[in-house]
């Protein structure tokens, strides 16, 4: 089972958790995904399919809103980096990401007060398009957000168990619900308009512990990079979610868990519709120092031996989010947002903006 490299993404059946024998299998497969792949498909999850189908039916309508409606909720209105970003506003590795997106957070009341750390201001309320322009969208999306964040909380427990830890041992990186906010994007990858454009989003690692992705249309395009530098396709499988692990979890487990580089290829010319996806990033607490003694996790010997058998991970891509080594999690997150969305930062975090962009506003942000 414990292959060092992978050619395919394992599919884990969440409903098997109900049966003790199958549950053991699920935990073993989860361990394999954590250590060796960094990605998995989850089938039969706790998310109601009706909520998913309702959400999917709204997505084309969301992107078909008029420019005016989209501009009303543009991200630069928001000190929380939540709102609409137009097509091609971010770069990854110096190349334009050919995608358009809305960033929403799980419902959250901003708790920042003057004098608090600046990163506390990053979490706050979302901007939703006018109810009249897209009736029922907000309720449907919030139902989805609620279910996906509950699933993520449960997965964090199962991941701890799969790593030989007590189920709550990763929960110390999460605060009580009202102090937390997850980020969920709704993304449109338009059909490539000419052969020189194919980067939906360039190769990158996610930053946190856990991402749960809904591929909301039938397009392929998502690919993950194995240790032989091959790009492995992760096509949509109806009824499943894609789960992956990020840099913070890789750091805090001292490389035991694998964060895996991934990218999205735009729907090629000749496709008949755009690709849609909905990634949910299950953020960790803002006050966590990943590199502090309090964050240390004591793995049982047999788990550490598995890591030795596997060996250290070679890097398939340039590192992003290496600032977990030195910075508190809230600052790593805010800095990531500043780099991705400099126009928002210039308006709401002018001092920090100047540190990253001493020469003034660039034409695009740097996503990764
Ligand atoms: O759209 C996708 O399938 C993946 C998006 C992604 O990797 C990201 O936004 O971090
Ligand atoms: Fe990603």
UniProtKB/TrEMBL annotation:
GO molecular function annotation: metal ion binding; oxidoreductase activity
Highest taxon listed in the record's lineage: Eukaryota
Record Pfam families: 2OG-FeII_Oxy, DIOX_N
Species classification: Eukaryota, Fungi, Dikarya, Basidiomycota, Agaricomycotina
Claim: Cytoplasm is one of the keywords in the record: no
Protein name: Clavaminate synthase-like protein
Family: Belongs to the iron/ascorbate-dependent oxidoreductase family.
Domain (Fe2OG dioxygenase): residue spans on this chain: 176-284
Organism: Dendrothele bispora (strain CBS 962.96)
UniProt entry keywords in alphabetical sequence: Iron, Metal-binding, Oxidoreductase
InterPro entries: DIOX_N, IPNS-like_FE2OG_OXY, IPNS-like_sf, Iron_ascorbate_oxido_reductase, Oxoglu/Fe-dep_dioxygenase_dom
């Amino acid at each position: 089972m414990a292959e060092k490299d992978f050619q395919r993404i394992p599919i884990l059946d969440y409903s098997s958790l109900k049966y003790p024998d199958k549950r053991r299998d699920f935990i073993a497969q989860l361990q394999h995904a954590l250590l060796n792949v960094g990605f998995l498909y989850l089938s039969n999850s706790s998310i109601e399919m009706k909520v998913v189908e309702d959400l999917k039916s709204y997505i084309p309508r969301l992107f078909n809103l008029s420019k005016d409606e989209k501009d009303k909720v543009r991200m630069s209105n928001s000190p929380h980096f939540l709102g609409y970003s137009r097509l091609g506003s971010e770069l990854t590795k110096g190349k334009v990401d050919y995608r358009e997106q809305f960033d929403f957070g799980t419902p959250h009341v901003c708790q920042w007060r003057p004098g608090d750390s600046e990163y506390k201001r990053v979490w706050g309320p979302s901007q939703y398009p006018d109810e009249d322009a897209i009736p029922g969208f907000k309720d449907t999306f919030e139902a989805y957000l609620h279910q996906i964040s509950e699933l993520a909380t449960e997965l964090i427990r199962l991941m701890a168990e799969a790593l030989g830890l007590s189920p709550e041992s990763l929960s110390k990186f999460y605060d009580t619900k009202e102090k937390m906010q997850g980020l969920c994007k709704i993304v449109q990858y338009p059909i490539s308009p000419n052969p020189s454009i194919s980067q939906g989003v360039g190769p990158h690692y996610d930053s946190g512990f856990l991402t749960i992705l809904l591929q909301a249309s039938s397009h392929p395009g998502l690919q993950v990079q194995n240790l032989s530098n091959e790009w492995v396709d992760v096509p949509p499988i109806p009824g499943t979610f894609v789960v992956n692990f990020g840099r913070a979890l890789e750091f805090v487990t001292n490389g035991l868990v694998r964060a895996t580089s991934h990218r999205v290829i735009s729907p090629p010319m000749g496709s008949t519709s755009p690709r849609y996806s909905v990634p949910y990033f299950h953020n960790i607490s803002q006050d966590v120092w990943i590199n502090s003694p309090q964050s240390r996790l004591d793995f049982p010997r047999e788990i550490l031996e598995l890591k030795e058998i596997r060996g250290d991970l070679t890097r398939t891509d340039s590192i992003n989010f290496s600032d977990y080594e030195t910075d508190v999690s809230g600052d790593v997150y805010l800095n990531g947002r500043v780099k991705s969305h400099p126009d928002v930062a210039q308006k709401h975090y002018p001092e920090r903006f100047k540190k990253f962009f001493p020469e003034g506003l660039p034409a695009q942000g740097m996503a990764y």
